[in-house]
Amino acid sequence: MITVKLYAYLRDNRGKSVELSYEEGMTIKDVAKALNLNLADVSIVICDGKDDIPSRMVDHPVKPDSLIHFFPPVAGG
Amino acid sequence: MYGYMGKILRVNLTKRTIKVDDLDFDLAKKYVGGRGLGTKLLFDEIDPKIDPLSPDNKIIFMNGPMSGTPTPTGGRYMVITKSPLSGTIASSNSGGTWGARLKYAGYDGIIVEGKSEAPVYLEINEEDVEIKDASHVWGKLVHETTDILQKDKNTNVLTIGPGGEKLSRMAAVMNEKDRAAGRSGVGAVMGSKNLKAIVVRGKMKVNLFDEEKTRANNKEATNKLKDNPVTGQGLPTYGTAVLVNVINANGILPTNNFQGGVFDAADDISGETLAEKYLVRKDPCHRCPIACGRYTKTKKVEGGGPEYETIWAFGSDCGVKDLEAIIEANHWCNQYGIDTITAGATLAAAMELKEKGYLEDVDFEGQPLDFGNAEAMVYWLHKMGKREGFGDKMADGSLVLCKSYGREDLSMTVKGLEIPAYDPRGVQGHGLTYATSNRGGCHVRGYMISPEILGLPDKLDRMELQDKPLWVKIFQDLTAFIDSSGLCLFTSFALGADDYANIYNAVVGTEWTGDDVLKAGERIYNIERQFNLAAGFTASDDTLPERLLKVPMPEGPTKGHVHQLDKLLPEYYQLRGWNEMGIPTQERLVELGLE
Ligand code: SF4
Fold it and tell me: Which domains does chain A have, with CATH numbers?
């Protein structure tokens, strides 16, 4: 199972954590689509420890047991 | 004179004299104000080698030109002195309204000298300034002191709590009860002078060079802050603690005194959980459209905060997952007037000392300081605030504590100041800012978390070394300007150097560009460096705790990494125009007008 964690207002109507079944050739773009998540609302994606902005992560391959985090634009200090 | 009030109050507590100095406008423009101008004045007036808690030290409260103007977030002030915690230059920033109020009373800043024989407070009512007996508030907590000294809605109170009175080297200066000039032990310097509080009343206005342009700039800046998803949505909704999860997901949320970087209960102590369970309302500083400040309530306490750093210090750094206990700890830090970062990090260091068997002889009074023990954490925080029992040993910070057990290496400090909530093993540029920050282990002297983790303004690879020294230098210089201007650093999530130049020009009447803003910041960075060198610091102090340089992160997405400071520092020195000893070259000083 793929585990997807969501944060801040991305949790609205989706919850904190969602499990998805893996399909051959799946990428971050497919995961976002399955969650009805517009990547324009996402600022940072972390997939199995690799972190980057969505435009550079869309085609990142997902594994059957991947852990993926989606963050909206957040900051602090 | 525009932007500045043109006056600095000089109070000598030994002689009980009060004077008004004229502000040198050229000097003000050269060092901007706040952090920059305060450092210049301090450096000119004290020997950096003095004992920070002696009457020879001075404490300066300094505004920037934008404080008290209608510019968004224009209400911040700086406390500048020699730090009793680190021995470096201290400049601690605070929000709220007090800074702006000092301008409304007619002053850019206050220089306090000497030492009063008995506890006093300063009451400023525009031109009437009095040194008054503080015996009725000495010993009282911050909230009660504020209530007693607060006269009306045109008055603002800055005070120390018992922490500062008892010369705890982690003591903060508090204003409006829960706003803190938190770091570097500045509250202890007030305590050493027997100065309990400064009460300010005033209704004057700051003159603006170009009112129309200022209005237009403010509108533009406010729109940018509101339209930006970070300053318009993330920070207002969740506060700074929205960071807990993203920092944890990168494996750099320091856990159990930096022994790990992943905290399983991160979501339980996150900004999301805080907003869901304990948030009463947002609590903005003066004229701030961002409103990241929180006002929270639990069954036991209510008040301002907690911030991300506080949640980390009492949360994952102490292995504590009970958010109510963390909010409680935050509340009592504000009441005793002590810095939440140093307080939490010192408790974490004590927990590791105990874990490693060094505290066998300590009477823990039935409250053993073990990682994860929330009740003991709050219990010993009270003892630290009151300097009682083992709490007295902790009250001067983790370095003093760990040294006394021969384990200086367990103090997670740079130049004696506790490192905040990001493990540098997984953010290489940010680690360089810790090592080179002029006040020691500090995250807000060049917040490299922005590009390295959050992708602002661009996303950099957090482990990459290339170009990081240049990024660090630019961030440090821009921050030095913002800190000196009277604006909040958080505006920089949405505004850039050119925006600040436009705002400054309309208020002060200069014709600066973004490059001039960075140059002023660089000048300020270098004068701080010179203060530290004169105080006896050397390049060998530009380092990180051994654990972060030698012990690979044991877990999570940062597993296997250490901080590679030795590969970054030489290039950083070169970019700064410093020689290999970390000393500014004559050419660079001349270039910056610091010869
Ligand atoms: S952004 Fe937060 S800290 Fe900065 S001025 Fe606004 S409320 Fe205060």
Answer: 2-71 (3.10.20.30)
